[in-house]
What does this fold into?
Amino acid sequence: MWPQSISTHFNSVPRWMRRCDSHCDVVISSRVRLARNFAHHPFPHQAAAAELVELRQYVFELLEELAETSNLLQDAGILPFEEFADWERQSLVERHLTSQDHIDHELSRAMVALSDASLSLLINEEDHLRLQSLLPGLQLAAAFTLTCKLDDLLEKLCGGEFAYDAKLGYLTACPTNVGTGLRASVMLHLPALEITGRMAGAKSLASEHGFVLRGTFGEGSKAHGHLYQLSNQITLGQDENAILQEVEEAVSRLIEMEREVRSAFVGSKSQLAQDAVGRAYGTLRFARRISYREASNHLSLLRLGTHLGWVKGLSHQRFNELMVNIRPASLQLNQGRVQNSTQRDEWRAKLLRGMMGKVRLSPILSQSAAAESSQDK
Amino acid sequence: MALSLCEICQSKYASVWICLQHQGVTEQHRICTDCVAQIAAGEMTHFAAANDWDIPKLKEVLAQLQQGWSGDDEEDVTLQKLQAMMGDDAPWNEEPDVAAPPETQEGTDETTLRCSHCQTSWKDIQEGGLMGCPHCYTAFADEMDKVIDELQHSAMHVGKVPRFRQKQERQAEVRQKRQLHRQEMLQKRLEAALRAERYEEAAQIRDKIAQVTRSLV
It folds into this structure.
């Protein structure tokens, strides 16, 4: 296990972006995070920098030891944040691998991740360790199994040093995570609910069941490209399987709501939806300069068009890749250089134009436009 | 300044950090130069209103800001320039508080109570929302009972138990079973001794039973 470069360590297509048949029309990916801390050290926000550096080194050594006895982290790379530029670290947030707070504190923070990013370990984030699995589609149980394996191995190697209390369970920096330390979240694509103004209903449904529906990048973020994260809020008083099951049930309800509204788009509201999808295609196909916000919303509409049978050539994987690759830091990472805002907007438009060359509109959109054009003549 | 996305458009890097003092409350906003320009031009007022921003104050600061800023290059606006323009109200210009001597022992007032391991006070936890170290949960157990009940609607962990803890619990269970068995055997011997009127031996057995009972408690 060696220090790696962010730009070369990860596969071009992380596992969560790949095809998965589990409710893929609405569900993008599933994530499970377990928060763990060492019993006799202050939490990262309270610890001195030198102590955090020592702690990080200790974790690296544990992982070296782990790699000798287990294949779980076979091709994992170590990513110490101080070795990377701001925009390189920002690309980790854009790929949904860590939080803004984590990368804002570059010194003594790090991440260890498999090259397909399906399993990773965040070091000195809000907690000393956050074990994380990120998989495509609705696969919370599989993601939990992976993180749990890593948890067991680490606990054994560190001799049971994890902070644990018989009454409160795993002790975490924030009391909202105490108990199981488990945060299960599912990324959902909800364009129909958002376009038709039903997000307030979806959010209240989530909160009635003890969950929260947040923006694309979790806490405090807004939704881009109609992507939302549903996650549990309660971590104490329920075991891990019960939490995962309840999150899946809430996800199923949201999937039903989204599908119900989408079905109206092929019926009474088809004109409205076709107009939106057609405009989105036109903009992405021909724009010379485009912001991330605009591009992500148009891409989202094309994904919706794909599920309504009006768009061909935009697979789930390609959509997921584009949604990440058009973000500011990822654009720069792929270019290998820093760009200003205008250059990024131009490069984003170029990237999208290239991709749109492979996308085709179905006859219902392309022929009607052609027919109207001939009528005008 | 750490790199983060603009609070408004969420698509460009925030290169302006605006810090406003409003009715004693400090508001901090990180936004990109494009959005700054749009707000200054009187556009995007819905964002300001939705976030409950102090629009007149914001405009005043932006007007000052624009005097020294062309608006073309994100890098032109530095935190130092903003600090200078924000004047004496900016929080970074505040004199540091003259701190009272640190508490070295637990006081009776709950706000001065400190964790003996990390010296975090109950006030720090209330203000920051984060515990200082795992021992804080014990140091502030009474206060945390209420907080955890409000947050989690439960007070007892029922999930995964670390394996080392499972081993400890199993060992404790075995020890307890052994002691219960011993207690049972001693009770039988006591009854036999009493039946045979061996009172001295019965007294010794009774002491042993008391010892075993204490260890079980």
